[in-house]
Amino acid sequence: MAFPFLQELPVSILVLLVVVLGLYYIKSSKSQNPLLPVNWPVVGILPSLAINLHRLHHYIAFDLLSPSGHSLKFAIASIHIFLTCDPVNIQHIFTLNHTNYPKGEEFADIFDVARGSLFTVDGEPCRRERTNYQGVLSSPRVVGLMNTCCRDKVEKGLLPFMAHMALTNARVDMNDLMMRLVFDLYAMTIFGVDTARLSLDMPTVHVADAMDTVMEVAFIRHIVPAFLWKVMRRLDIGPERKLAAAQAVLRCFTMDMIMKRRANDHVIVQEVPMDILSNYVNDPRYNDDLLKATLITYMIAGRDTIGTTLPWVIYNLAKNPHVVSSIRDELAPIISRKPSVAGVTMTMLDLEEVKALVYLQATLLETLRLYPPIPIERKSVVTTDVMPSGHEVCARDIVLVSIYSIGRMESVWGADCREYRPERWLSEDGRQLRHAPSHKFLAFNSGPRLCLGKDIAIMQMKIVVAAIVWNFDVKMLDGQPIDTKLSCLLQMKNGLKVKLNKREM
């Protein structure tokens, strides 16, 4: 049976939204502080958020949290939300009383493509899955494969591609390039397959596009009432139709990898380094659905976080040439000790060589402070509780922690908190890194959910950035807008266009 009115439904919603936003604008423009949200009946502050979606994280940091003392309670429809970037509250939520603030069933619904994996579970299932993940990520064979893949992809893929683009004076989108590099790296690490995204013809891989769609539609699921997106999912309309197609791509890809591995299991040679799939494919505790969700979680944890961060690193370095000079000064003594190889025009550093690069690591941490790959963390509330800030939260409330805002708090990072200054991470003599508590620097999460792959991610990013900085000059093209996507990740919306020049050694 057809439902003709459904074709008119999006238009009706749009008209209603325009009317509401217009009324909101008139009212807020006459108020003493139009930056603070107006709490409308039924829709709450949804109109205010809608108006500011194009600058959402800046709006949260400076128009909501800063005037309210870094914590704020508000409502969207019938949903009550506590928003904070106060480190004392964060320590309470993530560590001191973390059992009262699980991810919750609603989070598992939003990211249903990863349901049952470490990404979505709480309590004992979380502890069990975390033990399994830790065992895999600490395996010498898995770590060895990760290191080998990273070095090979940079040396044989990234650097030759960048050299070709420099020679032809072609414009390069570093955001796209870094995402392709990291997708290649993690496809090899997780599944043992080379997707060859990092090649001169730059083929499209639908799996990577599907992962972007999952994060973009999940963002919509976060900000609209659950009943609304669930109705759209049931009717297969709007963004839910796009998400369903993306989830099908991800599940088909991972299942295909699983079936191929099972079919070839008898020819696996024990001396070959193990990829992550090898650690799960014959584990009876993982049925097909849980195995697919687990592999997708590994892809999100690696590809999405590192691939999101690296373009921001390049962006900050292009804007701060003095930081690039400092990195090269740190690299120079190590590279001078490397033997020259005939015919090799570009220099690579190995894992052991980048471990000692303190200033380079400071540039990564400073980028993560200002541009965390996951800008907002969501938690549920189990029972009524009072935050250290004095705010009361009730059962079934939602807690949102703005990680983006924490890095821009003067009380935590000083008057220069909006400046990109890697030196803030260094000791006075510049030889050691300063420690920042995880509730003040939340890029790798905090408490029992502290990121298991933190050290691996930092090492991989150091290898990539060292190779780029030493071998190339990167100039950002003038006049391009640097905006962020409406996504659960802090990805660049329009890319990062640059010109490359090969350095003469």
Structure in words:
It is a single chain. The chain is an alpha+beta fold. It has a domain at 1-100 and 376-411. 52% of the residues lie in helices and 8% in strands. It is built from 18 helices and 9 strands. It has helices at residues 5-30, 46-51, 56-65, 87-96, 104-110, 123-137, 140-167, 174-191, 206-223, 226-235, 238-263, 288-319, 321-336, 351-354, 358-370, 403-406, 410-413, 454-471, and strands spanning 71-76, 79-84, 172-173, 376-380, 385-386, 392-393, 398-402, 472-476, 497-502. Strands 1-2-7-4 form a 4-stranded mixed beta sheet. The protein has a 3-stranded antiparallel beta sheet with strand order 3-9-8. The protein has a two-stranded antiparallel sheet with strand order 5-6. Strand 1 (71-76) and strand 2 form a beta hairpin. The longest helix is centred in the middle third of the chain and has 32 residues, at 288-319. The chain is globular, with a radius of gyration of 24 Å. 38% of the residues are buried.
